[in-house]
Amino acid sequence: MNQPIQNVVQTITANCQDCYRCVRACPVKAIKIADGQAHIEDELCIHCGTCVKNCPQQAKITVSELDTVRKMLADGGPVAVSVAPAFAALFGGWHSSRLPAALRLLGFTHVSETAEGALQVSEKTLQKKQHASICTACPAVVYLIEKYHPEYLDSLIPVTSPMVLHGRMLKKRYGQDCRVVFIGPCAAKKQEAKRPENRDAIDAVLTFGELLQWLEEENIKLANCSESGFESYGDLSSARLFPIQGGMLKTCGISGDNTQTDILHISGAEQVKEMLTLPPEQWDYQIIEALFCIDGCINGPCYPADTGDSVLARKNRVIDYAKKAPVHPDPLDYEDVNSSGSFSDAEAVYLA
C-alpha cells in the first residue's frame, strides 16, 4: 500500500457532542479531541468500527457506497452480490428465502453467498498453516497486527479473506466485466476492499444498514417477495457458520472446545490484544481463529442496532440456516483463482 487510502470510518462533526464515548471505546486509542470535536487519527485507526457502534449521536459513520452501487446497476452490465453469511442472523427464518428475490428486485444480476469463498478459504488455510498460525478472515485483526504488532506478520496465514476470494470466484464464473458488491456487517471490510491488491475482486461494499435503507427506499418488503435461492455451489453447511466464533475452525474440520492447548478461537478486542502479548515462539497453538468483534461477525459494528434481538438469538438463526444448506456441485474449478493474502508493516505504528 504505497499511497494513503481514505479511511472509511469518518466523523460527522455537526453531530459530535464531545461526549468522549468513542474516545473511551476505541481499542487502539485512535480518536483525539481537538477544537471540541472527536477526530479519528487515520494513521492509528484499524477501521474496526467500534466507534461507529458506540457513538450515541451517529457522529461516527462508515462511508456509504450506496450511490456508487446504484450507478453500477443503472449503467448496465452484470453486477453480482456477495452476501456475508452473517445475513442469516438478521434475515432469519422465512426471511432468508425471500432475500435473494429482494436483491434481484434491486437490480442485481447474480445473487450469491460469501460462504462459497469461506469454504475455499478454509481449504487454503489448512494447506498453508504452520505452527502458531493466525487465520486472516477478519480484516480488523489483520490491520491490528500490521499497524501495532508487525512482529506477528509471519504468523498470519497467507490466505486472503472470504470476501476477496469470493469476488474473484464470481468474476471467473460470470466474466471479468462483472462487478461484485459485498454486503455485510463489517466496517473493516470496506477498507479491505480498497487495498490495491484487492481491487480486482470487490467493486463496492455495503453494510446491512445500507441494505435495509435501500430496501425501504424502494418499498421492497420481504413478505411480498417470492421464495428463491442463492446462486451458490458446494456444501456450505459449515461455511455458513463463519460469522460465529469457532465457525471457521469447524469449516476447516477442526474441533475446538477451548479445552485444547493447540487450538484457540477467540473474539473481541480485549482477547485479541491479550493474545498478542505472548510471543508466537511461546505459543503451543497450532492455529488461532481470532475475530475482533465479541461473538463474531453477528455482532459487527454495522449490524443494525435497533433490532432488539440478542447475540444468542442471532447465533441460533445462523446455525439454523446452516443446517438447511443444499448441496449444488460447482461446475467450475477455482485452483487458478488467486487466494493469496499479503500483509505489510508499511503503516506500522511504533509507539514508545
The residue ranges in which pLDDT falls below 50 over 5 or more consecutive positions are none
Quote the beta fraction. Answer: 5-15%
Q: What's the N-to-C terminus distance?
A: 24 Å
Structural class by helix and strand composition:
alpha/beta
Q: How many alpha or pi helices?
A: 13
| Total separate domains | 2
DSSP, total strands = 13
Q: What would you report as the Rg, rounded to the nearest angstrom?
A: 19 Å
Structure characterization notes:
The chain is of the alpha/beta class and 352 residues long. The chain has two domains: 9-62, Alpha-Beta Plaits (2-Layer Sandwich), CATH 3.30.70.20; 66-328, no CATH class. It contains 13 helices and 13 strands. It has helices spanning 21-25, 50-54, 66-75, 87-90, 95-106, 115-128, 139-148, 162-174, 188-193, 208-217, 247-251, 269-275, 311-323; strands at residues 9-11, 31-34, 37-40, 60-62, 79-83, 110-113, 133-134, 179-184, 204-207, 234-235, 263-267, 287-291, 327-328. It has a four-stranded parallel sheet, sandwiched between helices. A three-stranded parallel sheet has the order 7-12-11, covered by helices on one side. Strands 1-4 form a two-stranded antiparallel sheet. Strand 2 and strand 3 (37-40) form a beta hairpin. The longest helix has 14 residues, at 115-128. The model has no long low-confidence stretch (mean pLDDT 94).
List the SSEs and their pairings.
Layout: E1 9-11, H1 21-25, E2 31-34, E3 37-40, H2 50-54, E4 60-62, H3 66-75, E5 79-83, H4 87-90, H5 95-106, E6 110-113, H6 115-128, E7 133-134, H7 139-148, H8 162-174, E8 179-184, H9 188-193, E9 204-207, H10 208-217, E10 234-235, H11 247-251, E11 263-267, H12 269-275, E12 287-291, H13 311-323, E13 327-328
Parallel strand pairs: 5-6, 5-8, 7-12, 8-9, 11-12
Antiparallel strand pairs: 1-4, 2-3, 10-13
Helix pairs in contact: 6-8
